[in-house]
Structures are given as C-alpha cells and as structure tokens.
Design a protein that fits this description.
The complex is a heterodimer of chains A (about 170) and B (about 375). By secondary structure, chain A is of the alpha+beta class. Chain A is built from 3 helices and 11 strands. Chain B has a single domain, classed as Cytochrome-c3 Hydrogenase, chain B, CATH 1.10.645. In chain B, the strands form 4 sheets. A 3-stranded antiparallel β-sheet of chain B has the order 1-4-5. A 3-stranded antiparallel β-sheet of chain B has the order 8-9-10. Chain B has a two-stranded antiparallel ribbon with strand order 2-3. In chain B, α4 runs antiparallel to α14 and α11 packs parallel to α14. The termini of chain B are far apart. The chains are: A alpha+beta (about 170), B alpha+beta (about 375). Chains A and B meet through β3 and α3 of A and α8, β8, β9, β10 and α12 of B.
Chain lengths: ~170, ~375
C-alpha cells in the first residue's frame, strides 16, 4: 500500500487523527498522540496493513521552542510496505501511551528514548534508564541539556564552544 | 513425580567475563540450575555516539561509526554513507559502488569468521577458532593494504572512498578466494559436524519466527528462524540488485528451526554467498575516479532520512535529520545487536546456565554497537 492509502485507512478508522504537515517526507505521517495505543493496535492487527515489525523508535528534539517527538518506523513483513509515524509531545510534560506490549522490542526502544529525552511512555511495565546509569541526572540528547558537574566524584567532561572537547 | 523447586539464586555473569563478548552484565535468576529469568544490563560501553554526532560535521561522524561495530567497521561506514547519499541525492561513480560492495562483503566474511570461531570457543572447541582467525587475518591484511588500517578504516566517505584499490588488489583478492573456498569444508569437518558441538547447540534456545519479528531480531538470527528477509535482496541499496546470490535460511538441520545450530549454520552458508558476490564483483569492476563525486562541502538540504542496510549482524539503520547546516541535528543508529540481545530473556528461560552462554554466543552481539 502507498502512504496515501495507509493514511486513508487510518483516517477512516480514527477520524481527525492524521495531522496535515507540508514538510514531511516520502513515508512520513504525523498523528495525534491521544489515541496512539488504539491506533497502533489497528496498524498491527488490520490484515491489509499488518505492520508486524517495529524497526526503530527515534526520539527527536526539534529545538528550544519546538516540541519533542517520537518517530516510529514500522514495516510489514507480509506486504513489504513501510511507514514512519511521528507523534509530538509537549516539552514540559512529554508523555504518550506505551506500545511495549504490542511489539516486544518496543520495551527496549522506549526505555532508550526515555533515557535520552525523558519522554514518559505510559503503561510501560519497566520504564527505567537503559544506557545511562540509574542515578544520572537530566536528559542527554535534549538540545538544552547541561550535564552534571561531577558524578560520584568523577568530573564529567564538557564541550567548550569553539575549542571542542575539554 | 511433581515439579521439584530448588532454592532461588541470583547469579551475576559479567561485566568482565570472556563469554559475554564484551562488557555486558547478565543478572541470571536460577531455580536450582534451571534459568528462570535473564536480565541483561547494558551501557557499560556507552560513549555518547549520538550526542557526539550533533557536535561534529557530517564527515567527522564516519570514524565514530567505525567504533560502534568494530568487527564490521566497513559495513558501519557503508550504512552511514548510503543514508547520507540518499539525503543529499548524490550518485556515486560505478567503481565506488563496486569497491564498497567488495569491502562490505570481505568484512562480512571477516566478521562471520570471528563469530563462528568464538562461538566454538564458547561451547568448548578451541581449535576451529585458531583456523578461522588465521583466515580472517588475511582479509585484514587486504584492508591494511588498501587503506592502511586493520580494524577501524574510515574508508568510505560521502560520495566516494578514501583510497582507490591498489593495482594488484583484484588478483590478491582472487587468490585469497581460491584459497579460502576449500577452507569452508575444513571448518565444517572441524566444528559443524562435530557430535559434541551438535549436542550443545541443536534444539537449544529455539527462537520462533513470529517472536523474532516481534522482538525486531534481524540478520542471520532472523534467517535462522526460517524468515527469508535480507535487506540486500528486499530493499536493495548500492548495487546489490545486480548480483546473483541466495539468502540462506534455517531449516532445522539437526533439530528445530530457529535453534542455536541454525543461527550458526546460516552464518556459515552466508560466508559462501559472500564469496559468490565477491567473485562477480571482482570480475565486473569498471575503471573510474573514486574521488570524483565527493562534495567539497557537505551541507544536506533540510529533511530527514531513515535508511537500513544489511550489516553482518542484521538491519543497521541510520536516522539522520538535517537542518541545513554542516552539523547534523540528529543522528540515530538502529543497532541490530541491540534488538538481538533483547530477545535473550525470552529464549533462555528453562535452560541451564551453560546453555545461556551457548544462546548468547549464537546471537553474535557486539557490545560497542549495543551501547554506542
């Protein structure tokens, strides 16, 4: 199926959930976040869509003013089509439903995005940091991140403007 | 007789343990000697690849990709430059495509040889490891001859490669293939058809196809479960659509489809397919200038790209977002070993502690790539 057909199928089942955005690429679609779990279930179980593989979840920080985003790359082994779902989150209180129980790999991908961006996936059964230590402070991949001075007495290196790494 | 429960014990394997293939800690809950839960703890090797990439220019990211999957650095480079070229809409000269495929496939053989040899080591066979490393060394020599580095190459650049092939490379590589092909049957005699090896791996850690897809397992691990999926065939990039090769899948040779032996066996068959591709590529390689299409300034237009390629461990995806400046706004690496490790808990339950080592080895993980 092409992107337009997939969009129409989503719009038919969940009216008003597809957001219009001119800047999007070939396979991208921006969706509202409030019905994400039901929408994801539909994307996975509907026989004509059948997105059985969750390739990747990418967290994105669009800048100081903009929202945080989760981007889901989905692929169907059966029909060999793909789609990229973009969901935007409020910067102050980023949260969205977890799809960990639909695709098992969602568990680790969501933990990684939580670790790096602080996006809370509601309903995740074991949401804790995965790459950073449990007691790390802040969300490293956000654009406004400022690292802690030291971690258990170890000085954390910082980037200096123009000079590069300390 | 009813079910006997032993005392529950928590056992830590790693972070410094030879059979964890790097710095990985497994928290294993056991019931007697039966494993009831495995919790992998990762992040010991986290070097902030993605954060670094937002602070250096696009071409400076390439050496970082080397250090992610250090056993198949050519393939890591390959994935990144293919994604970048898609974003910038660069068409590279034909010779560059051929060189990249040759390097990628040689590195795939090198990586698989290490995976197979170390797997033998994991389950107690020492000798095959030495044979395989001996032959891997010859491939690394060829890399050194071409670009000066044995393991971390920084060879593929956006729009081209750093050095052209040496004049006699085609002959050297051809000689190597002639030498190498008969060696595969030697490996089989040494390790594959060894009764002890089969007993240790067949029927152990069975990964059904639907579970594998749900856990995002890709590459030889997924094909071991009988799913015919190979990015080189199904979403061809570079010039892979020109070559004639098969996609081997697991058939349950000595046990069930998707067991440790199948994952091992698929890798062995893939080595043969890589040799096939190499022979075709060496035969058809055209002349040309490898630096011709390298852009002076890398400044991609605004936009994003997600491109996956087939690394020896599976689907290696790069998500690159550009905001029109010479520095990336976001680079995300979708690591195949990361997803492969996540399935460990699911397929290790109910097996003995020694089988967990066999299962972990059969997944062929590289911690540098998991932790990034």
């Amino acid at each position: 199926m092409t992107l337009t057909e997939i969009k129409t199928a989503i719009e038919k089942q969940f009216p008003g959930s597809v957001l219009e955005n001119e800047d999007l690429g070939e396979h991208q679609v921006e969706l509202k976040g409030d019905q994400w779990l039901e929408l994801a279930t539909f994307l996975k179980t509907d026989p004509t869509l059948c997105f059985d593989q969750l390739e990747c979840i990418t967290g994105v920080d669009t800048g100081e003013e903009g929202p945080l985003q989760s981007r889901y790359n989905l692929h169907s082994m059966e029909h060999r089509h793909k789609i990229e779902v973009i969901i935007s989150h409020d910067r102050e209180n980023p949260k969205v439903a977890s799809i960990e129980q639909l695709w098992h790999i969602g568990d680790w991908f969501e933990r990684e995005t939580y670790d790096m961006f602080g996006i809370v996936y509601e309903g995740h059964r074991d949401l804790r940091r995965i790459l950073c230590p449990d007691d790390w402070e802040g969300w490293p991949l956000r654009k406004d991140y400022e690292g802690q001075e030291n971690y258990h007495g170890i000085i954390v290196p910082k980037i200096k403007e123009e000079e590069g790494w300390e | 007789m009813g079910v006997v429960h032993g005392d529950q014990m928590i056992l830590n394997i790693g972070p410094q343990h030879p059979s964890t293939h790097g710095v990985l800690r497994l928290e294993v809950k056991t019931d007697g000697e039966i494993v009831s839960e495995v919790k992998p703890h990762i992040g010991y090797l986290h070097r902030c690849f993605e954060k670094h990439s937002e602070n250096v220019t696009y071409e400076q990211v390439i050496p970082f990709t080397d250090r992610c999957d250090y056993l198949a650095a050519m393939n890591s480079n390959f994935g990144y430059v293919v994604a970048m070229e898609e974003l910038m809409e660069i068409k590279v000269p034909e010779r560059v495509d051929f060189i990249r495929v040759i390097m990628g496939e040689l590195n795939r053989i090198a990586s698989h040889l290490l995976a197979l040899g170390v797997y033998g080591l994991d389950v107690g066979a020492f000798t095959p490891f030495l044979y395989m490393l001996r032959d891997r060394e010859r491939i690394l020599d060829m890399f050194e001859y071409t670009c000066g580095a044995r393991l971390l190459y920084n060879y593929m650049w956006v729009g081209g490669v750093s050095h052209d092939l040496p004049k006699d490379f085609v002959k050297i590589c051809g000689d190597f293939l002639d030498y190498f092909e008969p060696q595969i049957s030697e490996y089989n005699e040494l390790l594959t058809y060894n009764k002890i090896f089969i007993e240790r791996t067949a029927d152990v850690g069975v990964l059904p196809a639907d579970v594998a897809v749900s856990f995002g397992v890709t590459g030889p691990n997924l094909r071991g479960s009988g799913v015919k999926w190979d990015v080189r065939k199904d979403e061809p990039y570079s010039i892979y659509d020109r070559f004639d090769f098969d996609v081997p899948t697991g058939t349950g040779e000595f046990g069930t489809v998707g067991d440790c032996f199948d994952r091992y066996w698929v890798r062995m068959l893939e080595v043969k397919e890589s040799v096939k591709i190499l022979r075709q590529a060496l035969k058809d390689i055209p002349d040309g200038d490898v630096h011709q299409a390298i852009p002076k300034k890398i400044r991609p237009p605004k936009g994003s790209v997600y491109r996956r390629t087939e690394s020896p461990r599976g689907d290696l995806g790069y998500y690159i977002i550009s905001d029109g400046t010479p520095v990336a706004s976001r680079v995300k690496m979708r690591s195949p070993a990361f997803t492969a490790l996540s399935v460990l808990d699911e397929i290790s339950r109910g097996w003995m502690i020694s089988d967990v080592i066999a299962i972990l080895g059969s997944l062929d993980i590289v911690l540098g790539e998991i932790d990034r």
